[in-house]
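User: Let's play a game. I give you a shape written as tokens, and you guess the letters that built it. Ready? Here's round one.
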């Protein structure tokens, strides 16, 4: 890592280059504790090679269920499939919770930043989530806003309240998961927040995925890190039928992880050979160089013609509001029986004076 003194930065040292790492490996599917042990091993290896940031694939803890049907066809669910979902639920992650605490402690021990794909458990619903860690703490999360196709059988939908970009010593860090990256408006949100290191935990191993990563890097003028699993059937529970593989050695997740620079240049990968860790030394000054002729939410924008509005409020299905001591709505709309919140007053109560 190199640094320079900056007269305009209050004497702070600005790092010019930083080493980043992308992990391509398999979960121990539906086994949280064994997958956590693998996270520790892989993160330690990356840190030993001077990585300041380590990215793990989508749903790494505890597994991307590729090829598992959960006993579902349109109109019917089997008891066996329900039990498979129970196994998935039991191996998932509470936020906050002990798994988050363990990952935060690991980041502190290794003095690294991490972005880790997990399956989040919130009561009875699972979410595909990316967790962010600095060497000092858990920073926050991003929930996938749109699960793809059959993923919607097992994962809920995130909202725009978890679309963070974190200002870290490495650069401005954000994450968008897998096919969310085909949502142009979501990408614009990330660009508008100044993302510099755009992390993509993914499950897409097709050869066309590289063109997507290069386009995002060019469009956002940012570094893009894409991490996919390389997994065989032997990484999955043997008692669960897989619709895509039959022999333990069959490849289920193909890999294809890569790192791309802000002018679309491929720095590392894509790798389809097996489990590996990709490394790259990135220079954030390359972002300024790239934005000289294109800044999609800056000098290349036309807000007089096009603009995007984003509702980042938490979308909860149940919202509890306090009532006045009289039991009446404290903010009644004058001349009506409606509260300002939109709820009707109880019919047994007279309307209050406006």
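Assistant: Ready! My guess for every position:
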């Amino acid at each position: 890592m190199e640094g320079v003194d900056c007269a305009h930065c209050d004497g702070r040292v600005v790092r010019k280059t930083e080493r980043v790492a992308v992990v391509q490996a398999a979960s121990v599917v539906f086994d949280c504790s064994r997958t956590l042990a693998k996270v520790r091993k892989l993160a330690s290896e990356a840190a030993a090679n001077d990585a300041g940031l380590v990215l793990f694939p989508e749903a790494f803890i505890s597994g991307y269920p590729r090829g598992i049907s959960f006993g579902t066809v349109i109109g019917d669910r089997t008891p066996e499939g329900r039990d498979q979902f129970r196994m998935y639920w039991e191996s998932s992650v509470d936020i906050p919770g002990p798994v988050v605490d363990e990952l935060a402690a690991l980041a502190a021990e290794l003095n690294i930043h991490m972005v880790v794909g997990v399956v989040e458990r919130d009561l009875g619903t699972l979410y595909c989530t990316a967790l962010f860690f600095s060497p000092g703490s858990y920073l926050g999360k991003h929930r996938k806003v749109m699960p793809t196709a059959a993923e919607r059988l097992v994962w809920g939908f995130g909202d725009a309240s978890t679309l963070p970009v974190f200002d870290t010593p490495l650069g401005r860090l954000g994450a968008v998961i897998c096919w969310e990256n085909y949502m142009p408006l979501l990408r614009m949100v990330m660009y508008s927040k100044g993302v510099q290191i755009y992390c993509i935990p993914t499950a897409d191993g097709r050869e066309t995925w590289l063109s997507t990563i290069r386009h995002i890097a060019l469009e956002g003028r940012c570094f893009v890190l894409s991490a996919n699993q390389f997994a065989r059937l032997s990484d999955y529970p043997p008692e669960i039928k897989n619709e895509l593989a039959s022999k333990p050695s069959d490849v289920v997740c193909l890999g294809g992880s890569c790192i791309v620079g802000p002018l679309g240049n491929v720095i590392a990968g894509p790798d389809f050979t097996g489990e590996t860790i990709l490394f790259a030394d990135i220079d954030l000054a390359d972002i300024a160089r790239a934005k000289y002729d294109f800044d999609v939410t800056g000098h290349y924008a036309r807000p007089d013609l096009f603009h995007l509005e984003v509702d980042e409020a938490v979308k909860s299905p149940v919202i509890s509001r306090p009532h006045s001591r009289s039991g009446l709505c404290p903010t009644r709309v004058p001349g009506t029986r409606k509260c300002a919140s939109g709820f009707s007053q109880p019919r047994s109560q007279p309307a209050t004076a406006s």
